[in-house]
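[step 3/7] fold_predict: job queued, chain A
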Amino acid sequence: MENSFIYFKLKIRRVKFSEKYTEKVKMNLENSKVLILGGWGLVGGAISKKLIGHNVKTLIISSLRQEEAEDAIKDLRKEFGENCPELKAEWGNLFTREEWKDIHYSTLLNDSETRMEIIKDTFLDLDDNIRENSFLFKLIAKHKPDLVIDCINTATGIAYSDVYKSSLTVINDFDNGVLDKDNVEMLMASTYIPQLIRHIQLLAEGLSEAKSKMYIKVGTSGTGGMGLNIPYTHSEDKPSRVLMSKNAVAGAQTLLMYLMARTPNSTIVKEIKPAATIAWKKITFDTVKKGGKSVRLYDMDMKDAFETKGEFDFENNDGVVDTGEDLKSVFIDTGENGIFSKNEFETISSLGQMEIVTPEEIADYLIFEAMGGNTGKDMIQGIDAFALGPTYRGGFLRNKAIKMLENLEEEKGIEGVSFELLGPPRLSKLLFESHILKLIYGDFNSFINDNIRNTREKVLNLIESNDGLRKQILSIGLPILINDDKFLKGQFVKVPVRRAGGNYDLNSENIDKWCSQGWIDLREANLQLWQDRFKNIMSDSETMKYDTTSSRNYFDNTYWNNFNEITPGKIAGWIFEKEENGWRFKR
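[step 4/7] structure written:
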């Protein structure tokens, strides 16, 4: 009875999902808690001011440096006075551990010990240790915001590590016949996609931990809306590879967020992606800074000029004089995009160049989207609208393909269970384990009415006697656990993944994990799990008897052919949807 109730709830989950999703995509900003990542910046500041007009209860401003976060709050209190909500400041580098959040990233990379820890945090499997050390994860989990607004230029932060420069150093090492460990580590630490993936994993888990309703990203196009003809390259070539890497990371981030948005029962995800110069924050006369540091004024007397012969020596600064002064000038501050002279600004904002979008417009679009409005500027919605999903023709021809496969299997006298080309190994495990039950019992009732001890004896006899089946399983990388003490394996295994650090302990904890991930498990406990699963499938179908002729249900008796046959593909599909939430809700 209890299992029937559980799976009945799982069934009606899909019926009610669209209604719950509609409620979730619109927020009541009043009395909500909002976390702004990059809240000191140009766009973050504009959004903060707009939010105060919507009577949010708590506003958490996060920035890289303490003085930035505190200045942002100070400015809000100065402008809005008693109308301010509860304001909190947070600061630090969200791409590192909490303990390193106030240390300059280059300092961490230049230290061999912390650099290796950064590499491990990026490349090793995500575990509780990495998660709990992450400043990003802990910040979101700590405040549990209803809405997270991300104004950090993630693509710039990751892509300007310059993997090309690091690669050139390693190439030179190869040419010289000596491979330097530090140079290899620097190359690993500068790779873009692993860093981005880990960032998205920690972000998604932080949002889930906090039960945040919505996450909105202010992204970047990378080129201010221009194409490969962009004249402003931040480098020596046009367009520079580093700049194109920024574009690539920005695009990859959008598609990863697209996957976040298509995950059922998770935080709603949106992205506003400006494609123009964002301007401006202020116009002033002050010290010119680059990367947070003042630009130093240097000089060189005409009589000390170098001769244009021999080799160009980067390190030769003979005659170069440090004046002890910093460059000061009039400039326009465009926030995250930096400061520009009048002439630079006049150039990039010209008609036909990057042009301009104001931060206030971005803030208006973002808040309207948060409230459930449709601005037409949400990138995730745009990809949803134009991505080509399943088609009627595809669904119609699917049945034809399955029938042709069945006919050919019957003609050749062989069943193709799984080749482990699709993955993950868990899918192959489920397909083979259910196929074994099919070979022994044929139908649902014969299996669920048998004693588990009898089932185990029959399974062991089948594995021992059916050489072809055993060879298939072992040859695609799936070990077979006979009991707690013995297992079979082929030339290679898919689980556990081979690691550079050596072998794994064959303890009960690891074995249980590997069995879940991709080992064929012949122990009684797993066979009992399968028997319970079959009962739940039948119980789930039983709840649909009252409504068998409408389009509402599909896992009914007809789908299972009245349980007269065990069909591994259908069973795996049911497991992935009902037990593991691996279903799509957008079509």
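[step 5/7] annotate
Residues 282-348 form one domain.
The two ends are 33 Å apart (CA to CA).
exit 0
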